[in-house]
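Suppose a colleague, Dr. K., hands you the sequence of a protein chain of 376 amino acids and asks what its three-dimensional shape might be. Before reaching for any lab equipment, you can write down a predicted structure in token form. Begin with the sequence itself:
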Amino acid sequence: MKTKGALLRELNQPWQIEEIEIGDPKAHEIRIRMEAAGMCHSDHHLMTGGIPMGGFPILGGHEGAGVVEALGEGVTDFEVGDHVVLSFIPSCGKCKSCKAGVANLCDFGAMLLQGEAVSDHTFRIHTTDGQPVYPMTLLGTFSPYMVVHEASAVKIDKDIPFEVAALCGCGIPTGYGSSTRSGDVRPGEDVAIVGVGGVGTAALQGAVIAGARNVFAIDPVEWKREQALKFGATQAFATVEEAMNEIGNATEWGMCQKVIVTVGEVFGKDVDTWLSITAKNGTCVLTGMGNMMDNQVTLNLAMLTLLQKNLQGSIFGGANPKLDIPLLLSMYKVGKLNIADMITREYTLDQINEGYTDMLEGRNIRGVIRYTDADH
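The predicted structure, expressed as tokens, is then:
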């Protein structure tokens, strides 16, 4: 079928809305009519080359929600009309990682940046002149229609707003899980959240719900600091250096048992700074993405050893997509998790570059693209 999508043709160029051709669903695939797509910083990393895809053009977008329109052969877990969230981490349920309880490390993840469908290793999306298109994490939510493997979709209740559901494809479980799973925040602990955009605000809520005593928000944007206080932060600071004395005084200089780093882009030179506010035997969780080509880190190895600190990587917050996405949305439904107020602005697909400018300039916690009848 012919539709449109936001494509990147080369690095450091704006998104272009172009006509594309999407193939029919094959074995274990479903076609989805998209209703909403979240605008995550990771898609901006495609533009800068921080996340290198297998080739160009790239169809962006890895957060989204919509309605199942068609089923490929062998699909048993979905029906036409089901509402679904697209998870940027697929979960097959059969590989060693999934069976070991770390579905966020599913073996299908090895193919996320290759662009080829996991079903048959062919391209499901093409330009009008037949050129293969590489969809972000095998999804490409910046299009009104998608064909994806069933492992990348999670069925949800039909009474959940699509814009709320869309954020649970990445930002909400990644942030919330960074605190509650990867960080294992315990009641009474002191926690710092470094970077309070979409992922950071979800991490902040996770720490609050887990029972943290103090939650210190750190972000250079004043408006985001103000929002962090509304979402439950105890205090908010522009920089780690500014926060140091206040965190020290509040914790009797024990510092934070958990430091969750959810900045838009991680630089190796900053790691030791984040560890400086991490307590003895504490854990610093790196959730934000750095450039895949960056392998230089500033780190005092002696202090890491002598103070028995932990530096923990985290993908998808350590969450299980098929389990945790419905659980997080059930918390939203009863008012335990505030997702709606994290959505700062809605955009049309044609406004995608405006949306990313707003994100980069600190005006959004999360921007969301809403599709309309005109898109379909």
